[in-house]
Specification:
One of its GO terms (molecular function) is alpha-amylase activity. Belongs to the glycosyl hydrolase 13 family. InterPro entries: GH, GH13_cat_dom, Glyco_hydro_b, O16G_dom_2, SusG-like_C. It is a single chain. The protein is of the alpha/beta class. Helices cover 27% and strands 18% of the residues. It contains 15 helices and 24 strands. The strands form seven sheets. An eight-stranded parallel beta sheet has the order 13-12-10-5-2-1-17-16, covered by helices on one side. It has a five-stranded antiparallel beta sheet with strand order 18-19-20-24-22. Helix 11 (349-360) runs parallel beside helix 14 and helix 12 runs antiparallel to helix 13. The protein starts with 15 loop residues before the first strand and ends with a strand. The mean pLDDT is 97. The structure holds alpha-D-glucopyranose and calcium ion. Alpha-D-glucopyranose binds next to loops.
Length: 552
């Protein structure tokens, strides 16, 4: 008899590492990262201690949005390798005890996808209804796409437009069409059958559009209005998401991580509750603290640490009440966290450790984005020509259109560009950082001779925090314990308690630029982790800016 119990919540115990394949490791020296490169670096990831890899899109793609524009869901982009090489990566990772999850992009395809090509070629083909085409001499409404300009693109030679929430080369699939949904489900199941552990699910809250397709009052000088109002987390999405889960994920013991911006906290139970659509979701409420909206970078905020802390606490409470969260500081769409959350003059390895210690022990599954574990910084670029990211280019020109100077526009883009985290991974201080022997597709960060994978104190610290969460006598508390924030501390101090069956672990971090004195919630038994030199008495601890301590 097989009495092994299948743990449906195994993903709560994982530490997930995000790889941006184009920038991780180039194995054949063409300047572009690839699948054999990832395989080559598995021992590094094993030593780091992570248990699951999330690899950003590796499918066939013209790479307009670096793979988030898929032209064949079931083939590998030749720049990255072959299906055989992917299978080898999967097998090798498995032998090291590392699971792999892939990026599932099903809101849209590339315009080079066969379905879209057939839809364009023949207006009577059934593929027209795979996408959202509207007849007319003018754009059907005034919605602005996420990457700028109208969501509507004219079909050459016809009085007809198709809808794209992202770039014009990323036409949206028509989820109202049952045949489209079934085709996607079959594709998803084939990947799960192959043995991947699950998916990170891209832009999934955009699959339902308000069927009235009506205009709204403009919110910019371009006369357009953000399409999010009519295309993101709209009524009716529930039936698509329940069906998606039922037809695919439910049949496997897999993990699903939803990229679900725009979901209010009241709706978290539907998304991540016991019968929720996903295992966990990313919550962007505090990640986007520096901008009013993740897609309008000229709308910067003057955020304070107190506000950040408030958003973080709200987020953790909402996730705990509803289910489980995916905790992250960085990803391929965000700036480097050290540049975003730490004030100038304090961007040191110790501060990187302080941030790491602050977020890593929150309740949820921690995600680490490549290079975050090295304490990397944003790249400062001097001209818009140096950017690759389509949304950087759009934000630059939109800022100017909104009345900012080119210099201001460049500053906004430098602060927020998605290219900040897409720079090649620096493995060492040699030319091109050991990423490649060829000039990389995107320039390395300036500091790579100092900040790289060779002898790096932040990296050693990440190994320590991973080991504490995964393999120590406080692991179960850190993995499965509940969270409660301590309120008797300064606005600049994030302090929380994790507890499980009367056992507790405390985390206290100073996120401000002043020295803070904190009354300890109890006498320290054991210091599990600390970032800067300790200065404490029996009852108090004095924390330097960005200093963090974990104890029980
Ligand atoms: C998600 C991805 C982003 C991509 C967009 C369109 O937000 O994270 O990189 O550009 O979806 O697929
Ligand atoms: Ca390559």
């Amino acid at each position: 008899m097989n009495n092994s119990i299948v743990d449906k919540n195994w993903w709560k115990d994982e530490v997930i590492y995000q790889v941006y394949p184009k920038s991780f490791k180039d194995s054949n020296n063409d300047g572009i990262g690839d699948i054999p490169g990832i395989k080559e670096k598995l021992p590094y990831l094993k030593e780091l201690g992570i248990t699951t890899l999330w690899i950003c899109p590796i499918f066939k793609s013209p790479m307009v949005d670096n793979g988030y524009d898929i032209s064949d869901f079931e083939d590998i982009n030749p720049e990255f390798g072959t299906m055989l090489e992917f299978d080898e990566l999967l097998a090798e990772a498995k032998s090291l005890g590392i699971k792999i999850i892939l990026d599932l992009v099903i809101n849209h395809t590339s315009d080079e996808h066969e379905w879209f090509q057939k839809a364009l070629a023949d207006k009577n083909s059934k593929y027209r209804d795979y996408y959202i085409f509207k007849e007319g001499k003018e754009e059907p409404n005034n919605w602005r796409s996420i990457f700028g300009g109208s969501v509507w693109e004219k079909v050459p030679g016809e009085d007809c437009y198709y809808l794209h929430v992202f770039d014009k080369r990323q036409p949206d699939l028509n989820w109202e069409n049952e045949e489209v949904r079934q085709a996607l489900y079959a594709m998803i199941n084939r990947w799960l059958e192959k043995g991947i552990a699950g998916f990170r699910i891209d832009s999934i809250t955009f699959i339902k559009k308000d069927q009235d397709y009506s205009s709204l009052p403009a919110d910019g000088v371009d006369g357009l209005v953000s399409c999010k109002n009519k295309t993101r987390n709209r009524p009716g999405i529930e039936s698509f998401l329940s069906e998606l889960r039922r037809e695919t994920f439910d049949k496997y013991n897999c993990v699903t991580v939803g990229e679900a911006p725009g979901v209010p906290y009241e709706e978290f139970p539907q998304f991540i509750g016991d019968d929720g659509y996903f295992s966990m979701i990313f919550d962007f409420h505090y990640a986007d603290i520096d901008v009013e909206s993740g897609s309008d970078w000229f709308k910067r905020t003057n955020w304070t640490t107190a506000e950040f802390k408030e958003l973080l606490m709200n987020s953790q409470h909402a996730l705990q009440d509803a289910g489980w969260g995916a905790n992250f500081l960085e990803n391929h769409d965000q700036p480097r966290v050290l540049s975003k959350l730490v004030k100038e003059g304090f961007r040191t390895p110790e501060s990187a450790m302080g941030l790491a210690s602050m977020y890593f022990f929150l309740r949820g599954t921690p995600f680490i984005y490549q290079g975050q574990e090295l304490g990397m910084l944003n790249a400062e670029r001097t001209s818009i020509q140096q950017f690759d990211d389509i949304s950087s280019i759009d934000n630059y020109y939109r800022s100017i259109e909104e009345g900012f100077t080119p210099k201001e526009a460049l500053d906004f883009v430098n602060l927020r560009s998605r290219d900040n985290t897409r720079t090649p991974m620096p493995w060492n201080s040699s030319q091109y950082g050991g990423f490649s022997e060829h000039e990389p597709w995107l320039a390395m960060t300036e500091e790579y001779p100092e900040i790289n994978g060779k002898s790096n104190s932040v990296l050693e610290f990440y190994k320590q925090i991973i080991d504490l969460r995964q393999n120590s006598n406080v692991s179960s508390i850190l993995k499965r314990g509940s969270i409660e924030f301590l309120t008797d501390v300064s606005d600049n101090v994030v302090a929380y308690e994790r507890s499980l069956e009367n056992q507790k672990v405390y985390s206290i971090t100073n996120l401000g630029t002043n020295v803070e004195e904190v009354q300890l919630p109890k006498a320290i038994d054991k210091i599990l982790l600390h970032t800067h030199e300790l200065n404490r008495t029996e009852s108090k601890i004095t924390l330097l800016p960005y200093q963090s301590i974990l104890f029980n």
